[in-house]
Amino acid sequence: MFNLRAEIENREWVPWRSFRIATWLGWQIESNWTDPFLFAVYSIVKPLASALILVVMYGVITNGDFTSPLFPYIYLGNAFYMYVGAVMTGVSWSVIDDREHYKTLKYIYTAPVDYMAYLIGRGVARVLTGSFSVLITIGCGVAFLRVPIHVAAIDVPLFGVTLVIGILLLALLGVLLAGLTLVLAHHAGYLGESVAGALYLFSGAIFPLDILPAWLQPIGFLMPITYWLELLRRALIGSVAEAFPTLAGFSNAHLLLILLALTLVFGVVSVLVFRLCDQRARALGLIDQVTNH
Amino acid sequence: MTHSLAIETQDLGRAYKIREAKKKEAKTLVALRDVSLQVPRGELFGLLGPNGAGKTTLIKILTTLLAPTAGWARVAGFDVARAPNQVRPRINMVSGGESSGYGLLTVRENLWMFAQFYGIPTKPANARIDELLATLKMSDRANTKSSDLSTGLRQKTNIARGFLTDPQVLFLDEPTLGLDVGASRDVRAFVRGWINADRARTLLLTTHYMVEADELCDHVAIINQGRVLACDAPANLKQRLQREAIFHLEVSPLKDSVLPMLQALPGVCQVTHHPADDRAALDFILADESVLGAVINTLTQADIRLLRLDKRAPTLEDVFVNLVGRSIEEVERADPSPA
Prior knowledge:
Largest interface: A-B, 34 and 39 residues
Low-confidence stretches of chain B: none
Helix content of chain B: 25-40%
Radius of gyration of chain A: 21 Å
Shape of chain B: globular
Largest sheet of chain A: none
Low-confidence stretches of chain A: none
Distance between the termini of chain B: 33 Å
Structural class of chain A: mainly alpha
Helix content of chain A: over 70%
Strand content of chain A: under 5%
Oligomer: heterodimer
Distance between the termini of chain A: 47 Å
Order of helices and strands of chain A: HHHHHHHHHHH
Mean pLDDT of chain B: 89
Mean pLDDT of chain A: 86
Structural class of chain B: alpha/beta
Number of domains of chain A: 1
Number of strands of chain B: 14
């Protein structure tokens, strides 16, 4: 007879198992598009509308100069920045979702689950839906706004490697926010949006870092997202992206190395902060605290 | 690894620092103090006490959700604070009175997912799910979305989730809270059957229903204000009151001045008052039967009519009243905040 208890106690690969099932759960939640209209609003209309606002603002400020390299710089930066909100906030939001909405956090936490792997798994579905929004936004930019992306000129390996490293980085930053969410019973819901909003300013998403006051620029240079966005632009539109002085002195290989190093640093910090917050939340009795906010 | 004790605690304590708005100094709330318990394997152990007594705090510590601030606790032989990852595969828990679960998943999907978290392969997991749903009379709801279930059925799904992994130690926190009479009876029968089927299983049940504790538990710890006041088999606890005489009286509504007079009578150990619209119920624990005459005299002199009088065997409720000085209802009325 199959022995359930022995099976549970002797099973290995807990992180992989946690990640796999959380990915499945995340997809069930994210793909619960019972209303196609809502799906269209969230995945197509919302990102396109935010891109359009930026385009209109750009058009007004530059008197409609859409041939300037600044336009694809802004457009692509904004498009890829959608991943920041989707992945980073997606990972940390799972804590609030499970704790407040589904009230399952205590059951998952007390199961033989690697909670960090679980959270990252919950973010995978957000990567997929986020990718859809990014793709739609860039596709519309190429088709209707003459964003100069030529398929034959795309540096596919650079794009692929950069995208993967960036998503991993964002997932790890999401883990950091998830840790903070565990100890912030109140107002934790605003945390992801606030951080994503702050990083929007300092990561060169919609303007080169040179535009920032000199004393604020170091913050941008310390943010791995700055290098990630720059590499994505270079992989897609090559020399156009290199037209700006901020990072023009760095080769692609240099930027990739910096991105990798910062990802490693931020990754280690994220894991440490998460573990500390996890211990703190357990000490304070916050793991399953429902605020009903 | 097997251990003769499924649960062991020593001087276990938990205090919370509470900082009130606009006050600089934090207040310390002691939810649990000096709790030392030993629960052998194979036992159905009950924690009995009013809301706010510390039952849920104790369960949270034992299930690794909360760190203790004093003492230590071991579950299935592992320290809950130092080795939570060793404890978790060996336990499971169910909290009553809540609607947890992913509403967009079906009952089967919810249960399958938790089985996966515990590493149970799909085939045996599905067989176990079918078995549990049949036992809980929910087979026809296996493919219903959880959001479409009534509160009672969601609670039953939660109970199925707890039993799904056949844990060494299962924690049930008020499992019948919010269930109707029939469903509560089903759950109690299922719980008793589960523990009887395999003596390697241990179950810790918290409840504030005396009858539930009396009916189900091999041993009961009575807990109030974070302290364990007594711990023994229900029969032994009740045995402590065998020398006393226990009477249940129904009388016309009491005047406020009468209760202190009754409490002051020599030989009246405890009296609890349950007022109703047109009558009042009084439960007496008397040193011996001869005290009853003085009780009835006092009532008669106060123009209180005696409507009914029963002598009865002691219950766990009487044990609680004897230990705490008030009934569970009275304690909960005085401090309605749950812990």
